[in-house]
Amino acid sequence: MATLLEMRGIGKSFPGVRALDQVNLTVETGEIHAICGENGAGKSTLMKVLSGVYPHGSYEGEIVYEGQALALRGIRDSEERGIIIIHQELALVPLLSIAENMFLGHEVARRGVISWPRAYQAAEGWLRKVGLSEPPSAIVGKLGVGKQQLIEIAKALAKDVRLLILDEPTAALQENDSQKLLDLMLELKAQGVTQIIISHKLNEISRVADRITVLRDGSTVSTIDRGQISEDRIISDMVGRDMAHRYPERVPAVGEVLLEVEGWNVWHPEQADRQMIRDAAFTVRKGEIVGIAGLMGTGRTELAMSLFGRSYGRGHQGRVRMGGREVDVSTVPKAIAAGISYVTEDRKALGLVLEEPILKNISLANLAGIAVKGILDKRREARVAEDYRRALAIRTPGVQQKVVNLSGGNQQKVVLAKWLYTDPQVLILDEPTRGIDVGAKYEIYSIMNDLAAQGRGVVMISSEMPELLGMCDRIYVMNEGRIVGELSREEASQERIMAMILRTTGKAA
Ligand SMILES: Nc1ncnc2c1ncn2[C@@H]1O[C@H](COP(=O)(O)OP(=O)(O)OP(=O)(O)O)[C@@H](O)[C@H]1O
Ligand SMILES: [Mg+2]
Predict the structure, then answer these.
(1) By three-state DSSP, how is residue 361 classified?
(2) Which residues contact 42 (CB under 8 A, 6 or more apart)?
(3) Would you call 420 exposed, middle or buried from its count of C-beta atoms within 10 A (0-12, 13-18, 19+)?
(4) Residue 198 CA, ligand 2 centroid: distance in Å
(5) CATH class of the domain at 3-239
(6) Ligand showing the shortest atom-to-Cα distance for residue 42
């Protein structure tokens, strides 16, 4: 096989951070090459060097592509050579249509004017190819993250790609969409498209990758060949030691009922007759970790957000009790005061102010905590942030760092810190480990266990069934806006959860 790409001795520094140091990466023509590493290991940075986001001269080392030295001035240069990157944080414009997103800046143009009829037709073809049935005129912001990811891929395909770089493409996708995407990757490979994939989902990597390069602390640790690939090997290369358990040990000490939700009904924010949550009822006990399973789009996030200060939906009905007393959760401050907090799945849109430093983000939801006599105490603000930085092992040179400069996984930890600082009795975590490496997942699981051990209630919404089964004392299964079943830790299994979902699909009154 011929070598398509060689990156030699790549180094890259940011103020206070040596993100890459002496990284080597060789990619053969036609292969799927995976890059693994813990959060902050330098994976995204390496791909930004390769795609011209960081231009020639802003990094050390050399890149040879198709036998020629590559000195990119920007992302346009790399796209001209067929190198196309799909970034970890999606970059579609929510208010525009799919076709507009696909072709703006890359026109199906005649004399610089976009021919929209042709653009829509072309878009349609690429959408079908990635398995989407939406019309090209659909507004992107109304589609879920999963579909937006597929649109990104369709967009890349439209650009005559030769080296496709996917930075955590399945992080936001549910199981069957992920499988479709991986199939698509294999299909593209058969058509000769070389691909680089970054992912924390080791089972997926094992499935599609021909070779894996592991980064640790900004340097190459190893390149593993197809025959040698195993999850244990990847993990031990990533973290530098063997990890015996994926879930921290815990002896549950479940107490009395803390949160009780009864007859909870919520309607769609725009379509008045569309009911999104139907008569939901559930409880969370002190010291308990409760899971909510279900497919994407079944109302798990809507349920959580509607309870958290009516952040979602309209026409809310139902009762919420904390410790036996009815509480008012009609606004976010009231929900927080009642002891409920919610860690969003969509950290970019809802959880963080990216341009602000870590310390501002952490105290955002509890400014009273860092105020003395009504005046913001900067020293306390810094100390609180520093405590969380240490407790959650947020990898950063300091809490003054802007959140936008953190790696994806470390951003997630900042969101978590922000809501932990509101001192909730019940913490609802929505996909808390999405895009998080195995080591950091373990840390987040440990934090959940600690919260439970303190007698708090933890609710975990997750699309990763093994994680729900590994962590939860009890699991509610949601489907089509209803809670359709409940399983104890002993009863719960992937098959049972799926069976409950299938049995109740299309049966809603
Ligand atoms: N623009 C930037 N300014 C300052 N530091 C940065 C910047 N971009 C990345 N870093 C730092 O460089 C290191 C590598 O980050 P990178 O985003 O490449 O990690 P990653 O391996 O992609 O992690 P993840 O799995 O969490 O996405 C991190 O310590 C990060 O905080
Ligand atoms: Mg990254």
Answers:
(1) helix
(2) 12, 19, 20, 23, 215, 217, 218, 219
(3) buried
(4) 8
(5) alpha beta
(6) 1
d(CA 165, CA 52): 12
Q: What is the pLDDT of residue 153?
A: 85
pLDDT value at residue 106? 60
User: What is the C-alpha to C-alpha distance for residues 157 and 124, in angstroms, rounded to an integer?
Assistant: 12
Q: Which of 249, 294, 258 is nearest to 431 (CA)?
A: 294
Q: Which residues surround ligand 2, an ion (CB under 5 A)?
A: 44, 88, 408
Nearest CA to ligand 1 atom 18: 42
Give how far Cα 496 sits from Cα of 460, 477, 490, 502, Å.
18, 10, 11, 10
Q: How far apart are the first and last CA of the chain?
A: 58
What's the confidence (pLDDT) of residue 480?
93
Ligand nearest to the CA of 37: 1
Q: Collapsing DSSP states into helix, strand and coil, what is residue 210?
A: coil
Low-confidence ranges of the chain (pLDDT < 50): 509
Q: Decide whether 3-239 matches 255-339+424-509 in CATH topology.
A: yes
Fold classification of 255-339+424-509 is: Rossmann fold (3.40.50)
